Amino acid sequence: APGFWEPSGRVHFMSNIDAYNALPDLYKSAIEVACAEADSDMVARYDHLNPQALRRLIAAGAQLRFWPREILQAAFKTIMDSYRAYRGEMFQWHRVSENSFDNFAFSAAAHR
To answer: In which band, very low, low, confident or very high, does the pLDDT at 57 lie, cut at 50, 70 and 90?
Structure first.
């Protein structure tokens, strides 16, 4: 199965800091928005294309193997405290935006 340490790739953007700092604020904002959009688009493409890629791998003879549970438990134990603190802060936002949209989308798809 896919690596548990990177459930999704991320894009990093780098520039010359002096050149960036010399830009007008409007240009800096445009760069930041473009970078965020490129990152979001990459993750969406990843999510969309991964099932097709997985089918091709399996058709070519690849075997899916899953990490042993004890390895996953040890790996996640090291990050759980930090994750729980973050999740606690984000819970209200997800209730309002993410979860309500997901519930609607899955419900609508189930009734098609």
So the answer is: very high
In a domain, 73, yes or no: no
- Is 54 found in the same domain as 15? yes
* DSSP designation for 78: T
- Percent of the chain residues topping a pLDDT of 90: 38
- Judge whether 1 and 65 are in contact, CB under 8 Å: yes
In the chain, alpha helices (H) = 17-22, 25-59, 69-77, 80-96, 98-110
Cβ burial, residue 39 (10 Å; 0-12/13-18/19+): middle
DSSP designation for 79: T
Place of tokens 């800091």: 17
Per the CB < 8 A criterion, the answer to whether 2 and 57 are in contact is no
